[in-house]
Amino acid sequence: MKQLITKLYKNQSFIYKLLLHILTTVLVVYLFPKGGKFQYEFQKGKPWQYETLIAPFDFPIIKTTEGVEAEKARLTTNAKTYYEYDSEVVTRVTNNFETQFNQLFSIDSTIDINNYNNLKRKTSRLLSNFYRNGVIVSVDESKLDKLVVLMENNIDRGTVSYNQFIRLNSLQNYINKFVEREGLEKYETLLDNLFFEIIEPNVTINQEYTNSLLAEELSQISPTRGNVQKGIRIIAKGEVVEGQKLEQLNSLKKEYESQVWNESNYNWIVFGYSILVALALMMLLLFIRKYRPEIYENNNKVTFIFMNIVFMIVLTTLVVKYDSNYVYIVPLCILPLILKAFFDARLGVFAHVLTVLLLGFIVPNSSEYIFLQIIAGIVTILTVSELYKRANLFISVGQITLIYIVAYFAFYITHEGGIKFSEVFSRNESGNLHVIWVYFTQFMLCGLATLFVQPLIYIYEKMFGLVSDVSLLELSDTNSKLLKRLANEAPGTFHHSLQVANLAEAAASEIGANTMLIRVGALYHDIGKMNNPTFFIENQATSVNPHDELAPDESAKTIIDHVLDGIEIAKSNKLPDRIIDFIRTHHGTSTVYYFYQKAKELDEDVAKEKFQYPGPIPFSKETAILMMADSVEAASKSLKEPTSQKIDQFVERIIDKQMDAQQFMNADITLKEIVAIKKVLKKKLNNIYHLRIEYPE
Predict the structure, then answer these.
(1) Can you tell me the distance from the alpha carbon of 226 to that of 219, in angstroms, rounded to the nearest whole number?
(2) Residue 432 above 50 pLDDT?
């Protein structure tokens, strides 16, 4: 049991990565669609590139979205409107008519009985005509030529023309025509008073009933039209994908992907997806292990990479489930931007490509999507440099957006076989923008969303303890609290650090290393000297040397301790680990040579280990460059009457000595790069001492 625990402890890093790989695979597969994946890729207007396709089962032909919408619009336009006829109002108006007529017209010398009865009969007939189809308050101009259904107590009274209703706001016109036709001008005022007193609207629209019937009719629209029988040929090799063939292919694809799978098929689909996702994530782990071993050994960084991949897949899945037409709004280029900011461009591209390939199982038109996103990711890596400069990010986002637009426009042309600018710059029948402008808008929104990478980098720095160029820029400020303290307590060391930073930055730029990282590392590499500043020669303002009172081994310990002190100071001031690495490694496992030689003069058998720095030796190009620049700059102070030749010789001697001591064995640096670094250091030191190259006579 003890051996098992010991073995597990020794392999805990590998076990963690294995569990992370499995967990990520499960999560990604869970997000994948669980239906079948249609195995054919096809495009409208392009030849069918596969063998003749035979219908594998019966399936309906699915109507296009445009066709269904047109059918709904037609039903809505031709739908009947239902009005409610209130007979109680008619009864009430008729009773009021008797009363009001008798009050207004009386049999006297001005009107005899015959005229009275005749007038009453005509007026009553007019009233009946008013309520034959009903009286409404006002007219809806859009329905004048339409037929409507008149209902009374839920009984259909029949279909009438809308303009057959008597409109209350036009009542005066009807009365005037009646008076003129019947020659009743002398009774016009009395008739006006009569009708305006008794007439009430008795017809109102039954909107609820109308809407319910329309909704029922719309719900009965079939999403399919006809069926394709099993064994029927759908398309032959070389035939152009268009018209009915395109409809049948789209229908087969949707049917294939939306089938209800039984348990056996479902398990096989999940198993297949799991293998594909596991392989993709394994390729990423193998890449990191082979080419980025320092990242592979850090579980925190591996987790960070996997988390960002899963985050992009989750975000894309949510958008696709909501509406797959908006898939290009997802700012997928944030992934390579973040990985480049914290690690390097090569890892960013590799992870981005694998993520896009995995998303190909989720998004529609996967081949088009994969091409666009990979191209955009490559452009992101190539264009975004010095992310800490805001202008660079805005320019790069503009370039990424332009690439999206140009690439999609090319796809649109190939799909449509050309372009009609009159259609592109006009709205469709539904009044919506042309589809190409919809996608262009999505690309612009995607570009704006990509700008969120700046605050996201800050959040990740706090969550995972990582450091980006943005943080490095802040740390490089010589007015920061720690560097101001260094300048006050150890001014000579501060000046030395500035000189080393300039030398190292120039050398890093020459071989393509991270200049910002090495500059910050150089500024902080000697902060441990603040604990005992006068024990270091650059801070000794007088001729008094405290080492004169110490034994060589004690002096060596004081010198060596500045590395350990520097690490403690850096941690207490919460400097990033990438900066602390420069403090750890800037002397590697070299020897404090001066005091070692003094000790040997006293005791030939003195242990060399007492005079060696604890290490580790440099493990990156940047830490190796700092070791060279630090040693060269410090040693250059001891040159008496420096000449160009002397500088060249001592630079060669110091760096060759470090190479002989195998200080760069773990650093990913080549001999060619070391030669280039030597050249830069020689040139810079010549400039510092204002020397010219001595030409032979």
Answers:
(1) 18
(2) no
